From TrEMBL, chains A, B, C, D:
Biological process according to GO: 'de novo' IMP biosynthetic process; purine nucleobase biosynthetic process
UniProt cross-references to Gene3D superfamilies, sorted A to Z: 3.40.50.2020, Glutamine Phosphoribosylpyrophosphate, subunit 1, domain 1 (3.60.20.10)
TM segment ranges: none
Name of the gene this protein is made from: purF
Binding-site residues for Mg(2+), renumbered to this chain: 308, 370-371
Highest taxon of source: Bacteria
Pfam families named in the record: GATase_7, Pribosyltran
Function: Catalyzes the formation of phosphoribosylamine from phosphoribosylpyrophosphate (PRPP) and glutamine.
EC code(s) of this entry: 2.4.2.14
Protein's name in the database: Amidophosphoribosyltransferase
Coiled-coil features, chain-numbered ranges: none
NCBIfam families in alphabetical order: purF
Length: 495, 495, 495, 495
């Protein structure tokens, strides 16, 4: 068992590093009518790689048959091989990047998922999380459905398959009317590419165009990489149907104000993406500027925690006039594979990934800027690393408010009791982290960085429950269970 | 494309060699209550490896959860690894060896298949072929079922899941009452190990016992390898339920006379197995003896086509008094992996697998003994090899009757028009093969070798339609289609 | 460590099974001037696969550059891939199958080995074992040579490289004059294919021809597989040089009587090979006939230990009139990969590979025929298996004399103290094995089976020291060490 | 061939991207006397990963035997596995990261290389390039040496093996006295760890200490990652011998002024390293400051080409007062594996790796800062990307002088005719790249950034021939050949 223990311990270290970040489950892409459909989907998924690194899948339809390729690992590891792309013929394709929150990263869970109807097959890729998937799954199984994956997404397939409607689009609408929570969906039938966004627009989905063919994708960077044109964001509660006849829009839900997830701006989206019309990089810089205004401090250098803290640090530096320096260097070669063979090396922990740039730190008063604080375990180590490198003072600044509540809409957050800000007050956190001072951006400061005067408490502009506890939808699974039971299959299977 | 062409051509050669043999789809194994359940199942599958070499799977239940491991390749390639076995905890296990008749050897088709019911999960492994699976599948999809595999076996899972009965055993019986064709099933629920054999007992299933725990398996050799005791063959149309309370037997079908598949004796079962109380080796030797009686010939040596012709050749030699010699040597290192890189080498064909033992052949009159004749393509080459090695006369003798009809019960036979005996008369076949004389064992001779005076035409003792055209069950799928449509999914997926 | 222990234990079981057989180190093949040189070499190595299964290598020369491919595993696993063959251009090729006697099966030990001279490169493949390799290696290292492999063969390369002669052939002859022991060599320079056999002709090497191009190979089966013509055996002490100018023969050693290794006939060569003009199958059958004459016994059936005991068993049966039956069935799917995950299964041991055919054994007096007896560990288990299957009497007959001495010429024999016949007398062995009677073929009987009246004690016709202790050459390494030190590098490297 | 063509084309694209950067061959690490020697060596190589990403190797000595593990790929892919580390017992270890300049990335070329002397074994790892390796290799082969690798490093092993001296250290000094060019060596014998730096100190090597045990490594970051203490840089022409008796220093060469490679500061070393007492990050920032002074321009934003242009861009921004913004975002998931399956996608080229951050670029006058200009192929694309994103003006600034000469000391530079600055004048380059203005840092500006008033033309402080053509050593191989013949073996071998 020694070896497994070592591997477990190493995996634990990685998990510890990872567990102190937020994770999103997935990016989606779809294209209709393009001769290079599969290759472009691979390229789009590559641009969306930051949304999910554990697995990727592409399904195409060639006019007669569907073709699927699903692989664990990065998009570039498999889907850049022309032999794989050649096994994906057809002019219509959808693709999916997966980040898995459970240990069950097995192929049968990798999306897009596929099902056969009497009228033909269809495939679905999903970014987000359904809050009533367990309740629906239980009903479906009672009725004799056989679930092959452990994903909430499979529920959608069963709802489509069981719909009494005839046309695929009607079945699809039937299905989405039954699900709750957050979703950006791409679906492919024998005749149509469909996109759908939940009634609040929690997860993002944009429409683009290349060579006269429509594209659906999670972020604009997937358009940029292939020189495609951005058309518009899909609206909250909108279902778009793309076929040879062009594009059609349905609004099967009662009208609601949009409430996109604020974390796309703070952490998830790539800085060069434009989400809901806003440059993500600009928003993050603004957060740094607001933070400098709210919680300025006398110091010699502004040091970002790479890479996510960089835009806010640039903003903080520009607003405060204190020079921006790379006081921490990131090792780009660290991957999930780096396990640590001995106890001694495990203790080195964070140094595998980050190292102090002593020349910029020694004898200086530094302001460390990070995008957000989750468990605080990494922050403790980074502050210590700065002190070991000779920092005279370490002021920690977070370019977002304290995270006090878990997410159920597709962000992999720890249980509430593991969120540092849910356990301690500001002074407690400062002591835990070991900083000379600690400050978070206020909720209103965050909204100011987004271009609003403040949060509209009666009708909030964003989904921001992690900071406020204000969950925008019912949480049926959670209520049913009394607690958030992990989605576990009765079957454990390695892949 | 050059390379793929070469690989295809090579694969074609292998297929050509393989296509001239009969193949059975699968072996099954199950054990209940034994602490080494998974390891013993791996061992049993190893002993049944001859029944399916493309993939293997094991499902265990540990009292709380099911665990599955499925792998392409031989049992020994994967399931002899203690790490794999350790991932299969529990005292109850079922396993399956797969021979795939289509190109779609992908993991989601590998058995045992698993499904979750409201009352818990269950897994099924199947040897045989259902003759109404397509008809049932179409109905199920119309009703909104989602099929994940392209196997006929999945239909059984859906029927169980949709049954209105409560107890798992009742649901299982509900399901088997709807299926037609040939099956030996092992199923595992949270409380029970179930075995079932179709109403005619076409495919074999035996009951054994080790250390006080029951075992179900396709052949007695899987008992012998672990020192387990043979108890009895499961009867035709019998369902046995093994639980902590012991063993129970159900007979949910109207009583019928058993009619096991005669090819188990001729070709499939291992010679050291005892099937329906008969030593397979003895039966094959008897076939050689009967053949010598029916179609004796003046000759110098009896040469078996290795390895399947050996027992009959021993019988023929003993009956005729002509010495038995290994005039053909088999290369045991030939596997599916041996593809042929150049055209020249492809033409060598059969020599990769068999070579002439010139010293026993040169200048001699030889009687070649093989178990059966399918397309004849290999036989042509073997006769030519004998002549190239200097044989003076080559008399070809087959220890079974001419195969004139395709099988739909789990034997992978070519379409009828590719069966040599369906196309030509005896003299035509002799000329095609290039032998000096050719003879088949008669149908009655075959039954005599089995211990009967002759075939009982009104109530045949065996399923023998390949020789007689007398199919023992309706063929619903075939009738529905007008022809035997290949089971193809709408989804092509590589694995 | 559990897992490694399990893997080790399992590996130990396999080693136990394997350790009770003799092993030969290697087969060689060379062809000159043929456009399909690499593909034919792969095919020849495939036919010689029984001489070494751990690794294979091919070196070609394309007129400008040498190309090498070396792989662990079977020939068919890698060299049947057209992409590998395409990386081996050129009309001249040599190849090598390796059986490794130590744990160091790493790529740098896989032959053919290659070296660069000022005048160009050359490659060498070697079957056999040098008895003064350690002595020579030590001298070479003293002189500053750097050895990269741990093989005795590398010594030959250094001797060629250091020769003061100019022409490659002269350097090669210089080198072979310094080495002692057993060798069949194929060497490839930029202009020539060279074959060489040691002064006594201990290891085999034959000359053939295909499409007008010469072939050198260990056994005639490598000619048969490609339809090549056998020309003659290379003589003992002969060096043949094949070039565009044809073939030339050198005899650089004093004339001696040939003394080929007797074990090629008893065990190593394929039964369909013709070695030194004798059919191996015939010789083995003769050994069975002589054995029946010397040690006949009242019995019901003759049962061969498969597969090596079959020809002798056929001879014994024909001579004695007792019927030959397959009382033991071999599982062809057992490979080195079959490790046993639990202690219980490890104890099953031999049953993974062999099983009793109870119908032929139960209640019978059986004569078990095997080719030779090494440690006896497998024999014990096979006798017990026969008794478990109900044998009334078990008479064990070996178709060769007792092995009392180790080999140093390329056969992997255990140390002398582990050879059963070196430890016990006949009655001791009988009791150890648990047989009712035990008999070996006499040395003179063995020579009679080879066509001689008896062994010529003053000038023995064969290398037979394993039976007689009469080593045909000096054993310099052994003398230097006082004992047979394992060839270990100072460097342990995994591959 | 289609597929291979596609793979080649894709590989070509990658090579095109890579070919426009400079590459260094290798990083080295050694540690003596530490119980965790292998694990720490793996960790050190991980910190030095930027110096070579194609392969890594570690050799340890356990008091009785050497152990080696060599793998293609990143350090973390293999050497973070405790099973690999466990196969490397011993308290002394050396390791090596390799960047391969030729196609022959095969295991036998991966360092450290090992050889056996009469007195025991030794291993060597080498960073740098010998300028007389081909001349020496030819001599060695004439004398009968057998070269197994195609590396210049193997020459050192042969020189050590052939030395007439007795002690290993004397043999080693004998060897380094014969080699010319650039080298930082770590060597391990049964008793000693040796480090050596060429007479000019072209390649770096530093001495550190952890828990009282000495460490040798290429850069200080390898010390930082494990919390080891930096002691000093090894001097030019110094050989240090570390043993149980402590550390000893030899100076076997005539005293010379040090002349380290200037490119370590400009590009190779990690920014958080301290080389020859200078912070690499500070030097690069200074280069940006000098560049702003020499070639300032009116503009709206300073945009670094990530990641190598960042420190200079920060310096340029601070000096010029123009804001620093991330106008280009790097995709961190691009790796060597990303091949492009279709022509269309190949044309997208640089966008796989970099994308424009439109919000920071559109309508702005931007100053692009990169560290150096090699072929210019990437620069063309980046300027075009900026214009496509709406940049009003693009001013390109290089924080180093024009590269006009190839390197022969371990930097993989293109042949001279492919260096843009060797082909065109400044205005030609500006037009080729498509920038509105183009400027390079002057040679004296570069020296000022390093802390000198200017370059000392009679005794230059750095090896800077790439900018000046002033090669610091003879180039024997180049002179012998008349041109820089590629190091090719007579043997092509895949690995």
């Amino acid at each position: 068992m020694t070896q497994d223990n070592a591997a477990n311990a190493a995996h634990d270290l990685w998990r510890e590093l990872e567990a102190d970040r937020l994770h999103e489950e997935c990016g989606v892409f779809g294209i209709f009518g393009h001769p290079d459909a599969a290759a472009l989907t691979a390229l789009g998924l590559h641009a969306l790689q930051h949304r999910g690194q554990e697995a990727a899948g592409i399904v195409t339809y060639d006019g007669g048959r569907f073709h699927a390729e699903k692989r664990l690992g990065l998009v570039g590891d498999h889907f850049s091989d022309s032999r794989v792309i050649e096994r994906l013929p057809g002019k219509a394709a959808i693709g999916h990047n997966r980040y898995s929150t459970t240990g069950e990263t097995i192929l049968r869970n990798v999306q897009p998922l596929f099902a056969e109807l009497e009228s033909g097959g269809f495939a679905v890729g999903h970014n987000g999380n359904l809050t009533n998937a367990q309740v629906l799954r239980r009903q479906l199984i009672q009725e004799g459905a056989i679930c092959q994956s452990t994903t909430d997404t499979e529920v959608i397939l069963h709802l489509v398959a069981r719909s009494r409607r005839n046309r695929f689009v009607d079945r699809f609408v039937d299905a989405v009317r039954q699900i709750e929570g957050a979703y950006a969906l791409v679906a492919l039938s024998t005749k149509k590419l469909i996109g759908a966004r939940d009634p609040l627009g929690i997860r993002p989905l944009v429409l683009g165009e290349l060579d006269g063919h429509y594209i659906l994708c999670s972020e604009t960077v997937a358009l940029d990489i292939m020189g495609a044109k951005y058309i518009r964001d899909i609206e909250n509660g909108e279902v778009v149907i793309i076929s040879e006849d062009g594009i059609e829009s349905l609004k099967p839900f009662p009208q609601q104000q949009m409430r996109p997830c604020i974390f796309e701006f703070i952490y998830f989206a790539r800085p060069d993406s434009v989400v809901q019309g806003k440059s993500v990089y600009e928003v993050r810089k603004n957060m740094g500027i607001e933070l400098a205004r709210e919680s300025g401090v006398e110091a010699d250098v502004i040091v970002p925690v790479p890479d996510s803290g960089v835009p806010a640090a640039i903003g903080f530096s520009q607003e405060s006039g204190i020079p921006f320096e790379l006081g921490i260097i990131r090792n780009h070669y660290v991957g999930r594979t780096f396990i640590q063979p001995t106890q001694r090396i495990r203790e080195l922990g964070v140094r595998l990934k980050h190292s102090a740039n002593r020349a910029q730190v020694e004898g200086k008063r530094i302001v460390l800027i990070d995008d957000s604080l989750v468990r605080g375990t990494t922050s403790v180590k980074i502050v210590r690393m700065m002190r070991d490198a000779g920092a005279k003072e370490v002021h920690f600044r977070l370019a977002s408010p304290p995270i006090t509540h878990s997410d159920y809409y597709g962000i992999d957050t720890p249980e509430r009791e593991k969120l540092l800000a849910a356990q301690m007050d500001l002074e407690g956190m400062r002591q835990y982290i070991g900083a000379d001072s600690l400050a978070f951006l206020s909720v209103d400061g965050t909204y100011r960085a987004m271009g609003y005067d403040s949060r509209n408490a009666s009708q909030p502009q964003f989904t921001d429950h992690c900071f406020t506890g204000d969950y925008p939808t019912p949480l049926a699974d959670l209520d049913a269970e009394g607690k958030n039971v992990k989605k576990r299959s009765l079957l454990a299977e390695a892949g």
